[in-house]
Amino acid sequence: MIRFISLRLFRAALTVLAVMTFAFVVLRMSGDPAQVLLGPDVPQNVIDDFRADWGLDKPLWRQYLAYLGAILTGDFGLSMRGGAPALDLVLERVPATLILTIPALFLKLSIGIPAGIYAALHRDSTIDRGVIVLAILGFTVPSFVMGLVLVLIFSIQLGLLPSGGFGTWLHAILPALTISVGGIGLLARFSRSAMIEVMGQPFIRTASAKGVKWRDVVWGHALPNAAVPIVTIVGFMVGSLIAGAVVVETIFSWPGIGRLLIVSVSNRDLAVVQCILLLIAAVMVCSNLIVDLLYGWLDPRLRAQPAH
Amino acid sequence: MSLVTPTETAPHRVVTLPRKRRIPLAVAAGLGWLALMVICAVFADLIRPYDITQMDLSARLSPPGTPGHWLGTDELGRDVLSRLFQSVRVSLVIAFGATIISAVFGTTLGFLAAQFRGIIEHLVVMLADFQAALPFLIMSLAVLAFFGSSMILLVGLMGFYGWERYARIARGLAISAGAQGYAAAVVQLGATPRRVYLNHILPNVASTLIVSMTLTFPEIILMESGLSFLGLGVQPPDTSLGNMVGFGREYLTTAPWIMLGPAVVIMFTTLSISLVGDWLRDKLDPTIR
Amino acid sequence: MSFLLEADDLVRVYTGRGGLLGKAQPVRAVDGVSLRLGRGETLGIVGESGSGKSTLGRMLLGVDPAQGGTVRFDGRPMPARNTTEWRALRARMQMVFQDPLAALDRRLTIAAQIREPLDIHRIGTEASRATRVTELMHAVGLRPDQAKRFPHELSGGQRQRVVIARALATKADMLVCDEPVSALDVSIQAQVVNLLRMLQKQTGLSMVFISHDLKVVRNLCDRVAVMYLGRIVEEGPSEHLFANPRHPYTQALVSSVPEPGRRLDGRVILQGEPPNPAKRPPGCAFHPRCLRATDICRSGIPALQPLGTDRTAACHLVAGETRAEVA
């Protein structure tokens, strides 16, 4: 077990390093930030000064080492616009995003999983069919369409809820709802098929054949075994708590991480974009790590296996 | 033993009826819709009534049903129906190209990992870890924003979507075929790895891979339309479904039809592929369940 | 007589992963095996599951690389696996598998599969390949109308005939059969064994026949090697070895074969757990189950000693007896 955990930690660290390298390469190779930021009409000496100030005149590998070193000491650089520390700018936006994504996650879990399990246990019933159709609809409708349709209905037609902006909790309802719809559909579908697969296994038949109560069969035998694939999806959802709202935040002009990312990307604000990418990757890697450890706990067979 | 399509294992207490031979109605509808979309994409130039950039400022924001503009016009008086045809073509071409790239790339990596194991396998796992760590939308956003958007880059980028799924399937099936099965037997006959993979393993895993493609395809459509919606995908004057929704959004209150048309097309298309894909999976591939 | 195949001191170690801490445990599947196979000879290799006989069979073919020792085929060393020379050599040595359905590609017709070695090694023209396939199908007793069938449409015995036909396509010199009949119905087993015997007589090929079924081996083979936990414990001409087994393990195996007219009470019943290659006992690997084990068996590994002119056995006790006889 110790070996498994340390191997997994090593892989996680490697992944974060890969993301850092990716961010660095893409952002530095794609164009001269000085040119973009200062505009085309600026004299050469101003550009040179700017490049010297930001270390852009050094060879790429030295920039890379300096960048890694800075990140390891917790220095994510300064925003090229306004000069505030990038990390502060990013962290400032985290709560706004979480206000949307945490309730959305709660909605996904509390509707998606029960609906999927119920449908699996009442296979081929009307409710099952309804769940399937709604689930497929849920994750085939893109979030920007869903968001706009909700705005059309609840803000424009009915005038009940604000169509965008950040303020009272009423403002959060539509975006949170939009984020949760796709996840509900996905979870319902996954839980249903995981449950159906487990219910077809011989040990379930054995359990019910030897007279275990139906409720205990479902709760004691079927659910724990169906949990592994469901946990994978949930882990992914937890990992995207920060990253999963880019489109929705744009639609609803919500001042979260996603908006910041879009704005920084269009301003070519390197430090801020790097910082966001790293934050997103770190959260994702952590949740993947937890999911892998949970697997070991849920499914003893996976414990002794090598890395892949 | 028998290789006839196995009926699903009957769950406890429920007696399942033998599966119907006919294609279910929803799947038939899905197939019909997809056929319609393919026709639109192929013949977009012939069937669209106007050029996609042709403006008619006197007929700006005409509602649907206006004679000559059955789906209305946009803020510049361009015919929505014509633009819709072109958008279908662009979105389908991108999704199709990307699905192929991703399938080829992923399958090749999976086979390489199965053939050489060791270091290559670790590299593939690392690449998959990396992809799992950065949500694809975020990664594409960064790349497109900094390299600028072009059709080729867009297709190439989308081609990285979902490769790990093919890689996992291809690797797993190749290893199991190579351990004791027909692949080991053919190697033992003296076949080159090329022959083993192309003539034997690939045809045997093809149905599973095709099913995965039906899963990836709608996701790529959604991804592309999302990026285009954010203004980072297909660039004007060209148009795609997501790009139309993105621009139509500004006229949500005054001219919702600009946005609703492409939105409905996206929904129906992804829905159809999902339905057809699920059905295909049950038909072709008893192992995936 | 020069030998077709000479194997010396072959070693194959698998690294298993055991327990939660994942401590790597080497498993010596094949541990210092030497063999000779004459031209036109049929050599049986018998042993329980886990004795390493299948691994040995694949090593003789060069499919599993040897980690120690050498294999020489027709006087030349075995080329490295997956090289061009190695692949070319496949035309001369072939394998018959335990599970014919797994060994066949379920998407190709049997004619295409029998033809495949000819395609791979580029033997003959289109027309001559087709003729050869017809010929082979006839030789193994398949009907011409079955050429367009798929593996799952045939019975187990017919599938094994397809595998045999495919193995013979390139007129190989050596055939390694790994438990070729153990997955078949008993009634079919005899047919396939007879087919192999007949083909061997007709073509004069050399054959290594791996099986746990002593009756079949006795029936078919000229010589027999008995394996226990990766080592050969006794070897000799089939007739002599079965008539007068010397190693206690061979004695137990031979007496476990029911024979009409023989009473059961003289049987040597094997005791203890079946052998586990991961936990090889010190000394003679067989001693925990041996009725006659003494102290020396628990400490020293017995070497293969010649018994007379054409037999060998690896047992401290047998060696002692022989010496006593000589003295």
Describe the structure concisely for a colleague.
The complex is a heterotrimer of chains A (308), B (289) and C (327). Chain A has helices spanning 2-29, 33-38, 44-53, 60-72, 86-121, 126-140, 143-157, 170-199, 202-209, 214-239, 246-251, 257-267, 270-298.
Provide a descriptive summary of the structure in words.
Chain A is an all-alpha fold. Chain A has helices at 2-29, 33-38, 44-53, 60-72, 86-121, 126-140, 143-157, 170-199, 202-209, 214-239, 246-251, 257-267, 270-298. Chain A has a single domain (86-304), classed as Orthogonal Bundle (MetI-like fold). Chain B has 289 residues and is mainly α. Helix content of chain B is 66%, strand content 0%. In chain B, helix 7 (163-179) runs antiparallel to helix 9. The radius of gyration of chain B is 23 Å and the shape is elongated. The model of chain B is unreliable at 1-20 (pLDDT under 50). Chain C has twelve helices and twelve strands. Chain C has an eight-stranded mixed β-sheet, sandwiched between helices. In chain C, strands 2-1-4-5 form a four-stranded antiparallel β-sheet. In chain C, helix 5 packs across helix 6 (156-168) and helix 6 runs parallel beside helix 7 (186-203).
Structural class of chain A: mainly alpha
- List the total number of helices of chain A: 13
Largest sheet geometry of chain A: none
Radius of gyration of chain A: 24 Å
Q: What is the general shape of chain B?
A: elongated
Taken as a percent bin, the fraction of beta residues of chain B is: under 5%
Major protein interface: A-B, 56 and 48 residues
The domain count of chain A comes to: 1
Would you list the SSEs of chain B in sequence order as H and E? HHHHHHHHHHH
> What is the percent of helical residues of chain B?
55-70%
Number of strands of chain B: 0
Largest sheet of chain B: none
Terminal CA distance of chain A reads 15 Å
CATH architecture tag of chain A: Orthogonal Bundle
> How large is the count of helical segments of chain B?
11
- The N- and C-terminal alpha carbons of chain B lie at a distance of 17 Å
Gross geometry of chain A? flat
pLDDT < 50 stretches of chain A: 304-308
What letter string, H or E per element, gives the SSE order of chain A? HHHHHHHHHHHHH
Low-confidence blocks of residues of chain B: 1-20
